[in-house]
Amino acid sequence: MMKKIQPLLLLTMSLLLVLLSNCDKNNGTEAPEPYEVEVAILSPTDNAKILAGTPFDVIVDYVRTEKIVHNIKVEIVDVQGVVVTKLVERHAHIADQFTFEKKGVIIQTPGTYFVQASTTDLDATETALSDSNKNWVEHVIVIE
Questions:
Q1: pLDDT tens for residues 103-118?
Q2: Closest CA to 56 of 107, 99, 109
Q3: Of 31, 37, 7, nearest to 120 (Cα)?
């Protein structure tokens, strides 16, 4: 009788090991890791007042510690949401930190504008913006 129990015990132990080894796996249905990037507009400051026709610098810092910053976009839009100038839209593919800088930006028409900076994951879909509110930021600038 002992000889019959041994194969059954071995089979049971083998099945148990297989089940335990797959415990942390979700058979490919695991949710992807969120794409979170700290985006900070360093210049111009929020609510900056700039004289029409005067050059100013736009500096945006993207930080994603130990991971890749993928697609970046920086643009200036008016109060109706119309893009006045697109400063950059490209795949950065830089690890940890990326700083975008555009010197000498000029807006001739007085009014209120928004400097908007964002980043999306590799697939470049806007769903990456919903992963975290950190992936998008804007500053108001007033051109006088």
A1: 999 999 999 999 999 9
A2: 107
A3: 37
